């Protein structure tokens, strides 16, 4: 964010200053108007909200390719984007992307550069920035609508209950009968609730005004703390729904995951926030002995240097599910494999628990 600099005042002569101060000291002090007492400072960060199904964040602005157009515009078509990428084009993304942020997610705008914004994604903890996971996103994918911000901002008097998408994907509609589809939404999307009518939930959106979801595909909560604490079995059931989904570097959406984006999202939809990246997850979790593994525990793999580069979820009975990186010869998918036969078995460094 570019911040307008304050112009320094000219310093008057000393005697003139003393005279003015003496005069002011004799005046009664009036209370500031209530509205002025809470006026934001010029240095307050600018807040925005993602207004595409999932915004893909880049390491640097303007490095996207023509083949990425379906992921960088508004609207996006992430299924068409990922399905249309060759193996080489998928592998090129490694190191070029940071993460993804779902529709309605709060982002703090750190900098503007042409048609791009440098943002920090709320709800994706990382040691890299206390405000959230950083990266560059096309400005067209972020809304700064103050009306939506008032409804979505935590601890605001206008904050509404929110609908949490629990289906793998679901439609967002312009009408309560759900005949005019606006877009598809991914698991873990959260939007403020305006009303409920029969089998439809009316929600606020950052760019389409009021819209509608099916009650079969979302749950309504007054606050994130009301999401029921999951069991390991709950996490496993959610994770298994994505078996076979293609791997996408930096993916955190139902159209493609990377390893830690997968585990982060599975936990997050159940109300448990863990760090975004595998190395940070390993550092944050409670160590678990190999003979005490329980479903939902996370398994980690590291290079010989000690850097943790991969994470999977333990399913029980000696199996795990994970989103392994694409190989040089094939597109990888979220897969269920015996822990002992995992492709990174020789690099296993331990398990962590977050429940």
Structure explained in plain terms:
Pfam families: NLPC_P60, SH3_YKFC_2nd. The protein is α+β, with helices and mostly antiparallel strands and 355 residues long. The protein folds into three domains: 99 residues, SH3 type barrels; 78 residues, SH3 type barrels (Roll); 122 residues, endopeptidase domain like (from Nostoc punctiforme) (endopeptidase fold (from Nostoc punctiforme)). The protein is built from nine helices and 22 strands. A six-stranded antiparallel beta sheet has the order 17-22-18-19-20-21, with helices on one face. Strand 18 and strand 19 form a beta hairpin. The two termini are 37 Å apart. The N terminus is likely disordered.
Q: Could you tell me the radius of gyration in angstroms?
A: 24 Å
Q: Which spans of ≥5 residues are poorly predicted at pLDDT below 50?
A: 1-40
Determine the number of helices (DSSP H or I, runs of at least 4 residues): 9
Note the quaternary state here: single chain
Distance between the termini: 37 Å
What CATH architecture of the largest domain would you give?
Alpha-Beta Complex
How do the strands line up in the largest sheet?
Answer: 17-22-18-19-20-21
The percentage helix is 10-25%
Q: State mean pLDDT (0 to 100 scale).
A: 89
CATH superfamily of the largest domain: endopeptidase domain like (from Nostoc punctiforme)
- Main beta-sheet annotation: 6 strands, antiparallel
Number of domains: 3
Would you tell me which CATH topology of the largest domain applies?
Answer: endopeptidase fold (from Nostoc punctiforme)
Give a count of the beta strands, DSSP E runs of length 2 or more.
Answer: 22
Sheet/helix structural class: alpha+beta
In one word, what is the shape? globular
For the record, the CATH class of the largest domain is Alpha Beta
**Proportion of residues in β-strands:** 25-35%
């Amino acid at each position: 964010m570019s911040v307008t600099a304050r112009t320094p005042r000219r310093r008057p002569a000393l005697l003139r200053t003393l005279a003015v101060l003496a005069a002011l000291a004799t005046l009664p002090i009036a209370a500031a108007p209530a509205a002025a007492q809470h006026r934001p400072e010029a240095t307050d960060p600018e807040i925005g909200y993602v207004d595409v199904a999932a915004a893909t964040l880049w390491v640097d602005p303007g490095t996207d390719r023509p083949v990425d157009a379906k992921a960088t515009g508004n609207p996006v078509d992430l299924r068409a984007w990922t399905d249309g990428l060759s193996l080489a084009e998928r592998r090129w993304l490694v190191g070029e992307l940071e993460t993804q942020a779902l529709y309605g997610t709060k982002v703090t705008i750190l900098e503007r550069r042409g048609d791009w914004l440098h943002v920090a994604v709320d709800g994706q903890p990382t040691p890299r920035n206390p405000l959230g996971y950083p990266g560059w996103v096309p400005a067209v994918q972020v809304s700064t609508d103050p009306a939506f911000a008032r409804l979505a901002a935590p601890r605001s008097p206008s904050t509404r209950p929110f609908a949490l998408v629990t289906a793998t994907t679901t439609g967002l509609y312009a009408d309560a009968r759900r005949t005019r589809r606006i877009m598809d939404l991914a698991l873990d999307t959260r939007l403020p609730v305006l009303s409920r009518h029969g089998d439809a939930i009316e929600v606020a959106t950052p760019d389409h005004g009021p819209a509608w979801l099916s009650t079969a595909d979302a749950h309504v909560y007054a606050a994130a703390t009301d999401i029921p604490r999951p069991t390991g079995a709950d996490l496993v059931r959610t994770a298994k729904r994505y078996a076979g989904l293609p791997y996408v570097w930096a993916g955190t959406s139902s159209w493609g995951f990377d390893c830690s984006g997968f585990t982060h999202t599975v936990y997050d939809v159940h109300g448990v926030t863990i760090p975004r990246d595998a190395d940070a997850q390993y550092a944050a979790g409670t160590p678990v002995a190999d003979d005490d593994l329980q479903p939902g525990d996370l398994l980690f793999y590291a290079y010989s240097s000690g850097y943790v580069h991969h994470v999977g979820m333990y399913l029980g009975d000696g199996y795990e599910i994970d989103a392994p990186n694409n190989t040089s010869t094939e597109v990888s998918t979220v897969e269920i494999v015996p822990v002992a036969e995992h492709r990174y078995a020789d690099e296993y460094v331990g398990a962590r628990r977050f429940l």
